[in-house]
Amino acid sequence: MNLSNLKPPKGQVKQQRRVGRGMGSGRGKTAGRGMKGQKSITGYGHMRGFEGGQMPLHRRLPKRGFSNALFKKHFAIVNVGQLEKLPGDTFTPESLLEQGVIRKLGDGLKVLGNGELTRKISVTAHLFSETAVRKIEAAGGTATALGLPKRGPKEEKK
Prior knowledge:
The protein is α/β, with parallel strands linked by helices. It is about 15% helix and about 15% strand. It has helices spanning about 55-60, 80-85, 95-100, 130-140, and strands spanning about 75-80, 90, 110, 120-125, 125-130, 140-145.
């Protein structure tokens, strides 16, 4: 037994239906597409949501809401509990990038207050939540806010 002897079980592989191969084949002339009409033409395909010319549902329904996706800010987020587990006692956005804690800086680094902090650390970030500042200062550390980075209209995100 080798790979060249392998065959699918009997009845599993059907013979391909050959359409449009003459009148004697039983599927000649219109090739199973019926007489006339849009669907009988070669290259036919309709768009998603097409309802036969009737106004499609996605166009009948009213538009609702507002999307701020173009101007949304994307922050790299780090929790206080994550900083507790890391070696060292001084953390900056650049040092966290090097350590692999955050992948992309985006619009800046935001430190959130999830988790416990038992040691004194100094953190420099663009934004802090109130609970993060409380926990860092309660442990005897410092939280330095850089403020949001200024970005012009034509500058791209990193």
